[in-house]
Amino acid sequence: MDSFSATAKRMPALTARIASNPSEFRVLTGERPTGALHLGHYFGTIRERVRLQSIGVETIIILADYQVITDRDIAENVGDHVRGAVADYLAAGLDPERTKIFTHSAVPALNQLMLPFLSLVTESELHRNPTVKAELSASGRALSGLMLTYPVHQAADILFCKANLVPVGKDNLPHVEQSRVIARRFNERYRSVFPEPEALITDTPEILGLDGRKMSKSYGNAIALGMTEDETARAIRKTITDSDKSISFDPVNRPGVSGLLSTAALCGDASVEELVAELGDSGSGALKQRATDAVNAYLAEHRRRRAEIVRDPGLVDSILAAGNTWANGIAEGTLREVRDAMGMGYANSSEASRFSMRS
Questions:
Q1: Which residues lie below 8 Å from residue 196, measured CB to CB, with a gap of 6+?
Q2: DSSP-H helix ranges across the chain
Q3: How many CB atoms lie within 10 A of CB 102?
Q4: Which one, of 280, 282, 281, 284, lies nearest residue 256 by Cα?
Q5: Can 3-204+313-358 and 229-310 be said to share one CATH topology?
Q6: Domain coordinates of the chain in residue numbers?
Q7: Is the Cβ–Cβ distance between 36 and 224 less than 8 Å?
Q8: What's the pLDDT band for 117 if we cut at 50, 70, 90?
Q9: Domain spanning 229-310: which superfamily?
Q10: In whole angstroms, what is the distance from residue 25 CA to residue 27 CA?
Q11: Arithmetic mean of pLDDT, 129-141
């Protein structure tokens, strides 16, 4: 049985445990702020975070700004993307009193965990990671050290706060498995410090973009949550379709039509099959209008709340500051435990003395 099948088999029991005793779990989730959050993020992850928060699961969200440069040369507009993501989280219903939100670069002790964690993995293990393999194949250039060690950085993200639950899709399951391996090896080599996190596989289907491919910022086929109604209409109007007036769902041969059907179904009250039957031979123009109306109606309240949030320029920064302070306290405590376990407690003592002298 492969890793995904084995994990999927455990899901009914795990979801029952979460429902019966949510306070046992601490979730770590997040994303790289490489662009505006879009419908794929909303249906793929954000709604699940709101659900977990609502049932009482402690939820922590990392905006992994350092990891923006794993597969690109610069972190362009990263500040805008970070603040925009926080605004979308709040508009979607995440409560900063119950869900901590912080940025990667603001937590030095988290990143220090990379050093001992790197000693627990081999180069061949890193090369076997699907994300690393895909980047090597797609980029056609040598891997940067940061890209090669990306799985270890994600393990540090998960383990620094001793998260024991990580919501993932099938593609990201290997990152949780790598985190489990690192936690187990550290505990065996030194002493037990880290829980082995469990993967919570989400059953959200792949969200198609406007061109029929997976919705992605890098493909330019996404509808951002923060778009205006007019911007949404323009994006949908530009979708490339075909001259066949008969509407059908065929992602391979009719990617644009299929992407529009998928988007309209996600945001509306009709299934893809019902939309196909309803639209019949009315052509792509009618389909584009139906998709536009569905998206704008679905996101209307989200956008209203988001507009209120961004009108207060200090709100997002204050939430990030509070989250960063919280994360630093957790990370520094974990790093002290790691140093003690490795026989380096003297580093903790000298650090305490230095701070004492300064005060």
A1: 164, 179, 180, 183, 184
A2: 3-20, 39-41, 47-54, 78-92, 108-112, 114-118, 123-128, 130-139, 145-148, 150-159, 173-189, 229-237, 255-267, 272-279, 283-310, 313-341, 345-358
A3: 26
A4: 284
A5: no
A6: 3-204+313-358, 229-310
A7: yes
A8: very high
A9: Tyrosyl-Transfer RNA Synthetase (1.10.240.10)
A10: 6
A11: 83
Retrieve residue 168's tokens. 């993932």
Confidence of residue 355 (pLDDT cuts 50, 70, 90): very low
Say what the pLDDT of residue 195 is: 97
Asked if residue 100 lies in contact with residue 320, where contact means CB atoms within 8 angstroms, the answer is: no
Q: Are the beta carbons of 109 and 160 closer than 8 angstroms?
A: yes
Q: Which of 171, 228, 175 is nearest to 197 (CA)?
A: 175
Q: Look up residue 135 and give its amino acid.
A: E
The sign of the dihedral angle between the CA atoms of 188, 193, 199, 200 is positive
| Burial profile 277-311: b = 16 or more Cβ within 10 angstroms, e = fewer | eebeeebbeebbebbbbbbbebbeebbeebeebbe
200, two tokens: 């919570």
In degrees to the nearest 10, what's the CA dihedral of 311, 317, 318, 322?
150
Question: Which of 275, 266, 330 lies closest to 295 in space, CA to CA?
Answer: 266
- Mean pLDDT, the chain, rounded, equals 92
Q: Given this structure, which CATH class describes domain 3-204+313-358?
A: alpha beta
Long-range contact pairs involving 270-277 (C-beta distance under 8 Å, separation at least 24): 273/249, 275/247, 276/247, 276/248, 276/249
| Burial (0-12, 13-18, 19+ Cβ within 10 Å), 351 | middle
The model's pLDDT over 305-332, given as tens digits with 9 standing for 90+, comes to: 999 999 998 999 999 999 999 999 999 9
